[in-house]
UniProtKB/TrEMBL annotation:
This is Biopolymer transporter ExbB. Its main location: membrane. Belongs to the exbB/tolQ family. It is a multi-pass membrane protein. One of its GO terms (cellular component) is plasma membrane. It comes from Hymenobacter lapidarius. Signal peptide: none annotated. One of its GO terms (biological process) is protein import. Keywords: Cell membrane, Membrane, Protein transport, Transmembrane, Transmembrane helix, Transport. The chain crosses the membrane at residues 37-58, 138-167, 187-210. Pfam families: MotA_ExbB. It is found in: Cell membrane; Membrane.
Length: 231
């Protein structure tokens, strides 16, 4: 029995050595675009998901950064104007400041004269709308983080199918029959994981930025209600 297994091992080694000797030498520094193209049609949705992820991450970051502004300076200016009873000046400052906080305060200023509870409710409602605007499209990153590795896994299955089809068609088992399928398998799997990781990191990073923004808006809303009570 041991002799039989030794014969099989020797035959397999001879087959592999023959295949390696016959296989063309491929340069190690293969261009990235050529390597990606070997992934086949599965790379199309992966590249599309990658592009969408990068766009959302950049667009949302710039939007959140622009919306953040300088809440301390803005609220100090509002406080100074309210102490002077300059309601028109406060409304003008809100109109000239393009930020969620300014729109919240402006809504509260327009409700002055009503009970404080109604003013607070109006400010909170505007805040919810502004938060929804900040979170726009961020959930898409979560979806991409889930489906990109799955699409890469589909490429893995296609690569395995190619390997077995090549073996069945040639009735041979060697590097030439395995290499093409392994290209598809490994390239699509790696790309799917990379896209998924980028989307996952972008989703949580942007969510943290939004949470910080919400915390600042809530503090400023409380400060605004305190200013109304003091006046």
């Amino acid at each position: 029995m041991s002799v039989f297994f030794l014969q099989i091992a020797a035959t397999t080694a001879d087959t592999v050595n023959t295949a390696l000797a016959a296989a063309p030498i491929v340069p190690a520094d293969v261009p990235l675009i050529d390597l990606l193209l070997r992934g086949g049609p599965v790379m199309i949705p992966l590249v599309a998901l990658f592009s969408v992820s990068i766009y959302i991450i950049i667009e949302r970051y710039l939007t959140i950064r622009k919306a953040a502004g300088n809440p301390d300076f803005f609220m100090n200016s509002i406080r100074s104007l309210m102490i002077k009873n300059d309601l028109s000046g406060a409304k003008l400052l809100c109109a000239q400041t393009a930020s969620p906080l300014a729109r919240m305060v402006e809504k509260g200023l327009r409700r002055i004269g009503l009970p404080l509870r109604e003013i607070e409710t109006s400010v909170e409602n505007v805040g919810k709308i502004e938060i929804a605007r900040l979170e726009k499209n961020i959930s898409i990153l979560g979806i991409i983080a889930g489906i990109a590795p799955m699409i890469g896994f589909v490429g893995t299955i296609i690569g395995v199918i190619k390997i077995f089809y090549s073996i069945a068609a040639t009735q041979e088992f060697g590097i030439p029959q395995v290499a093409d399928g392994l290209y598809v398998k490994l390239v699509t799997s790696a790309t799917g994981l990379i896209v998924g990781i980028i989307a996952h990191v972008g989703y949580h990073w942007l969510s943290i930025l939004v949470e910080r923004m919400v915390f600042r808006m809530e503090n400023s809303a409380i400060e605004f209600m305190d200013i109304l009570q003091d006046n």
